[in-house]
Amino acid sequence: MKLLLALANLLIPVAVLVFATGFFPYKPFIPGLASHDQLSNYGPPPERHFDRLIFMVIDALRSDFVFSNNSGFTYTQSLIRSGEAIPFTAHATPPTITMPRVKAITTGSIPSFLDVILNFAESDTSSTLAAQDTWLAQIRAGRDRENDGRLVMYGDDTWLKLFPDMFARSDGTSSFFVSDFTEVDNNVTRHVPGELQRSDWDAMIMHYLGLDHIGHKAGPTSPNMIPKQVEMDGIVTSIYQAIETQPHLNSTLFIFGGDHGMNDGGNHGGSAPGETSPALVFLAPKLKRLPGRRESPVEQTGGFTFYQRIEQSDLVPTISALLGFPIPKNNLGVMIPEFLPLWQNPKDQLNLLLRNSQQILSIVKATFPAIDFSGSSTPDLCDDPSSDSQALACQWSTIQHRLDTYASSDMPISIVLSGLYRFCKDAQDLMSSTASNYDLSRLALGSALAAIATILSSIAIFYSLLLTNVDMFIFTLITILFGVMMFASSYVEEEQHYWYWISGGWIAFLRFRSSQKKINMGQIYSLKSQASIITLLILHRIIQRWNQTGQKFAGYPDIVTSILFQYPAALWTLVTITYLVAAHQISYSLGKHLHYGYFISTISAILLTICSLTFKLSFTASDAPELFPFLSNTSITTLQSLPLLALARTIFTFLGAHATILIAQAIRAPHISAYAVLSTAQSLLTLLVMTQSRAHNIPLFLLFSIQQSCLQNLKLTPAQLSATSTFFAHTAFFAMGNSNAISSVDLANGYNGVAGYNVIAVGLLVFISNWAGPLWWSVAGVAMLAEQPEQPSAGGRSWIASEHAHLAGKDEKSQEEPAGGELKGRYIAHLSMATFFTSASLLAVMVACTVLRTHLFIWTVFSPKYLYSMAWSLGYHFLVTLGLSGGLWALGKKDV
What residues does the GPI ethanolamine phosphate transferase 2 C-terminal domain cover (predicted)? Predict the structure, then answer.
């Protein structure tokens, strides 16, 4: 049985990685740099209007931050009114993460969803664009200049990883150090005045991160947001005034905008309107030649749309035309038609759109080699095209006919121009919606391995429990229903409701089962047990209303926004109580299980708790000072001045020291119990996850502790405890504000105690922060399992014996630790249930992603869900359930 279980757990990570390599492959690209070809009848490309580019990215610059009434970009708005700035709302396709967005705005292509993972791995260099055609490579090639173009770059070091050895001068900053609002931008701005005085560069790129960091830490309504917008508008002012006054800049195109937006929580990565709607502004005195004038500020027309909405990739051919270099080979963008009037000769406009059409056509041909795009499609095929690609071929045939007719007749050029533009947009839509080049064999192999792991773990459960147990039948049914739910996009988006319903129903089921057993034995169901069930249900209701999450109800009132944020004194009262309870638990555990003595254990608990609470007060004062209306400005300033780095490191050092002593004693002591190790570890873990959680979520751990006490009063069977910890772990994950959207990943606590970016340290801290609730319940579940007294059994099917003992009423608290073999049987059966649920749920997600790979929401719903399944399987199950909880159990598991 143990061999089967071990094999099942080895297959899970293999299945995850095999499936991922088939589901998230790198997209192929056309190598080499594009060159200008001579078009028959239309000559060389038209003259360029600009010879220099300043490209400024303001990370997470949502459209309303620039264009709305409540904006700090007042100077920019004045340029829009004067006609010197042309505004757009860009559409950033998911995933709305920096790396794939930078790829889109430099190549014009649709990045792979795998870039979501590579975006978090800052040390990764496999996603470089060094070998791809981009507007940076075209400028550097300097095909129409005597010397190669020179580029300079300051800001987010994502650009340095994507474009190694591309820049003559650069100074990069880490995009993930979200605790910094100021220095990360000052480090960019300090280079600007000097570069504006120099004339030895052809393109200057800046990527500001402070606004994005404010969003991650405190949301779009943070009091720091408007001042940051004013600061960025000041940078725009200084650059534009230099363009107006300095001769060597008088033919400079200035573009600024966001790589993506942000949602109401300040995060991004998903497909919410706020995340996919960054602002985009073109600025230059020459743009006053364009017809029409615009008002600014204006009201949005819906979905954060201000002015015209364009695709973010449309930047690439537009920049190419304005600066006079070839369109990069992998571009799927369409030149923005508002700029065509800069070329007064209609034939020049036709020349530009024809080049854009032919460039996109080359990608379409490579994607659909079986379709004839020669322009000779027969009427039979075009009367009823068999596919979208065939319809596009027929559209190109019509364009070819119009071009021939235009050259030899008086056909209005506007008809040809509109046809070319329509073809480009239709080709863009087709290529953007074309399924990825999935490796179906790897998808099948990954799913097969997950299926084998599910079968092996179910066999292990059978040998541990015999599948006649009603509890196991319900657990299996819940797992199957969860798998079925993964095939519906709306259920995946709102998965939290499934776990809220399941957990509430499971509590009611436990009341029925426990009551039935007592009645069968002729006993009256105790008042204590009744009160515990009622308390569990009440707390469950409170917990599920703590944070609204998902897609449909994310902005609805909840306890945090409607009560705790409205009455901060109540928030900090609950936070203080939670810390006091945590201090008591640590003191009790250190004194009872590690034999520190009353004085030392109390002092240790007090110091740890004071340090952690002080850190959280200072952290929150820096991010959300509005949560301290009862403090004076001097007190808030004092809190903000405390050394967060030192405080966090002190907490982690103390926790690490106690954990080391715990491990040493467990190894050295001959009879230390599993419960002693686990309960001590749980008390220390509680302080860790509280440190890694936002202040408004800290009281949840108080509610979790009360739930645990209620569960201990119910004298549940081991099978019931294992199922309960699984259901409550998922409930806790969503109750803390998480969802299946990439945008809900919280980076705010990822740098606690870290001075600079370290992929392992930051990754671990981010995982602890986002999986704080499940992590707590994993250790709490095995702690309750170790505490549960059982009768020793002669055989290996210990849980069967425990069930008989429970039915016989032999479940009163025992002072003696159960036999080591009994403990071993409990954990193996618990692990069997956890492995079965993990592998079965993973299998369901894999099959859903495979079957629905052409679904409209494959990249916005199902792909993020698979990434979360990877985290649940590799991070939570493999590292926490097997590693942390299993290791702690093994330390205390002594045979007697």
Answer: 435-893
More confidently predicted of 788 and 508: 508
Give the list of residues 6+ apart from residue 546 with CB closer than 8 angstroms, or none: 558, 559, 560, 697, 700, 735, 736
User: ∠265-173-647 over CA atoms, to 5°?
Assistant: 65
SS3 458: helix
How far apart CA 307 and CA 857 sit, in angstroms, is 27
Which residue type sits at 364? V
| CA–CA separation, 203 and 254 (whole Å) | 10
User: How would residue 100 be classed by pLDDT, with cut points 50, 70 and 90?
Assistant: confident
d(CA 888, CA 659): 10
Contacts of 615 (CB under 8 A, 6+ apart): 642, 644, 647, 648, 651, 691, 752
Do the beta carbons of residue 730 and residue 855 sit within 8 Å? no
Tokens 């967005």 — which residue? 101
Q: What is the DSSP letter of 526?
A: P
Whether pLDDT at 4 is above 70: yes
> Which has the higher per-residue pLDDT, 33 or 315?
315
Would you call 52 helix, strand, or coil by DSSP? strand
SS3 170: strand
Q: What CA–CA distance (Å, rounded) separates 550 from 744?
A: 9
Q: What is the pLDDT of residue 463?
A: 75
What is the DSSP track for 286-327?
Answer: GGGGSS----SS----STT--SEEEEGGGHHHHHHHHHT-PP
Question: What long-range pairs does 78-84 form, CB within 8 A, spacing at least 24?
Answer: 78/296, 79/240, 79/283, 80/281, 80/294, 80/295, 80/296, 81/293, 81/294, 81/295, 81/296, 82/288, 83/287, 83/288, 83/290, 83/292, 83/293, 83/294, 84/240, 84/283, 84/284, 84/285, 84/287, 84/288
Pairing mode, if any, of strands 85-91 and 279-283? antiparallel
Query: Please, which residues bridge with residue 279 across strands?
Result: 89
Whether the Cβ atoms of residue 641 and residue 739 lie closer than 8 Å to each other: no
The CATH number of 48-342 is 3.40.720.10
Query: b or e along 100-109 (b: 16 or more beta carbons within 10 Å of the residue's beta carbon)?
Result: bbbbbbbbbb
Phi and psi (nearest 5°) for 310?
-125, 165
**pLDDT digits over 322-342, tens only?**
999 999 988 999 999 999 999
The conformation of residue 590, written as its DSSP 8-state character, comes to: H
Query: 316 and 124 in contact (C-beta within 8 Å)?
Result: no
Please give the structure tokens belonging to residue 757: 């970016």
Residues 575, 698: contact at Cβ < 8 Å? yes
Question: 518: helix, coil or strand?
Answer: helix
What is the rounded average pLDDT of the residues 660-671?
83
Helices (H), 142-269: 158-162, 183-189, 192-197, 210-218, 225-245
Please give the pLDDT value at position 785: 87
* pLDDT the model gives residue 608: 93
Write the DSSP assignment of 758-793 as a string of letters.
Answer: -HHHHHHHHHHHHTHHHHHHHHHHHHHHHHS-----
User: Which stretch, 59-73, 266-280, 513-527, has highest mean pLDDT?
Assistant: 59-73
Helix and strand totals (H; E) in the chain: 35, 8
Closest-CA residue to 311 (of 429, 401, 393):
429
Is the pLDDT at 27 greater than 70? The verdict is no
pLDDT tens-digit series, residues 239-266: 999 999 999 999 999 999 999 999 887 8
Structure tokens at 643: 């050394």
CATH 3.40.720.10 location in the chain: 48-342
